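User: Let's play a game. I give you a shape written as C-alpha cells, and you guess the letters that built it. Ready? Here's round one.
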C-alpha cells in the first residue's frame, strides 16, 4: 500500500460523512487522488466543481485502481454492495465503512473470500449533524472526534494500520472495540 498521501482513495457516497471525508482528505492529503461515487448526480457535480474529488465514474471505474475504498453509504446499501466488491477491487485494496451498525455488514462479509475479509476493516466515526447531504459536509467534521474500528482476528495488520492512518489524517481519534461491544454500546 502506498502512503495514503500519494494513493488513490475511492469514496462511495458523498453525503455528510463521505463529503466531509473527501474535504478533509483534500486539505490534509492533497497528493492523494480522490475518486467519488454517488447516486446523486448533484453531489458529484458539486464535488467536481469544488475540486474536492479528482474524478468520478461508475462503480467499476471508481474501484479498479483504488488503494483505499471508503463505503460511506447507508448500512443496508453497504451490505448489498459488499458481495460485488471482491470482483471490482484490486487484490491490494483496503476497504472500510462508516456504518453505525456492524452486524448486517459483518454478515454480508461472511459471503466474501477470506483474502477480501482480511482487508476489510469495519469503522464507525462518532460524528454527524442534523443536516445531511454533500452541501452539509465540512472538512472539520472529524476533528477531535472518536472513530471506532471493529477489528477482527482475520484482519491484516497492514489493513488496520492503513484505516487507522486514514482516520487520523482526517483528524479523528481512533479506538478499537469488538463487534458485539460496538453494537451494544451504540444501541444504548
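Assistant: Ready! My guess for every position:
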Amino acid at each position: 500500500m502506498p502512503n495514503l498521501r500519494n494513493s488513490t482513495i475511492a469514496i462511495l457516497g458523498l453525503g455528510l460523512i463521505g463529503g466531509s471525508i473527501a474535504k478533509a482528505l483534500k486539505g490534509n492529503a492533497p497528493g492523494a487522488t480522490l475518486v467519488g461515487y454517488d447516486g446523486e448526480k448533484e453531489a458529484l457535480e458539486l464535488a467536481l466543481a469544488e475540486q474536492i474529488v479528482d474524478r468520478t465514474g461508475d462503480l467499476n471505474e471508481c474501484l479498479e485502481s483504488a488503494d483505499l475504498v471508503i463505503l460511506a453509504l447507508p448500512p443496508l446499501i453497504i451490505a448489498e454492495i459488499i458481495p460485488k466488491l471482491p470482483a471490482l477491487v484490486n487484490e491490494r485494496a483496503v476497504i472500510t465503512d462508516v456504518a453505525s451498525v456492524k452486524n448486517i455488514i459483518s454478515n454480508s462479509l461472511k459471503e466474501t473470500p477470506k483474502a477480501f475479509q482480511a482487508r476489510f476493516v469495519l469503522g464507525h466515526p462518532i460524528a454527524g449533524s442534523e443536516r445531511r447531504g454533500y452541501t452539509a459536509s465540512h472538512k472539520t467534521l472529524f476533528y477531535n472526534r472518536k472513530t471506532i474500528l471493529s477489528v477482527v482476528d482475520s484482519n491484516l495488520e497492514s489493513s488496520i494500520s492503513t484505516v487507522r492512518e486514514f482516520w487520523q489524517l482526517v483528524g479523528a481519534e481512533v479506538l478499537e472495540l469488538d463487534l458485539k461491544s460496538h453494537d451494544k454500546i451504540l444501541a444504548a
